[in-house]
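>> received
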Amino acid sequence: MKKQRVNSSKKVFHIFQLVTILGFIFCLGSIFTFIAMNMVLGDNPSIEAVYWQRLFISKITNVLILPGLVFIVGGAIALSWLHYGFFTNRSLSIIQTLIFLIAINSIHICILVRKVSTIAIQQYESSTTIKNYMAIKSREDMFGGINMILLLTCLILSITLKTQPKVSKI
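>> returned
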């Protein structure tokens, strides 16, 4: 009976690890998509090109960032709740704090994406450039870069730091 419980606990542990890893893949994939789209547009894109880019970026946000964020946070909470505990050692505390910062930053990025996309639509409809577009777009890019650094740091620390699971509650 105890062996079956251990096997089921390991399966649940691995499922939540997989969910968290998928969340990281989604979020990093969205950042690399944003970078590629910015490179494709170049330095002086037309209003039409910006409009189509923003439609694509908005979809990517809904398809990758938001689900990725849910996967990261949900998986991390489940792993912490069931296997590690919250803030039980320094290594784990760093990783959990980074995940919290990633969540806050990702929400901020989603808000900026919505603002920038709204302005891009207004520019396209009026065929005139709106001045604050680039300022908000620059902030979106900056927070995206910060998120990429946070995500990569969290992944590297998760792989390299010793965080032993506590006794499972399952």
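>> The radius of gyration is 20 Å.
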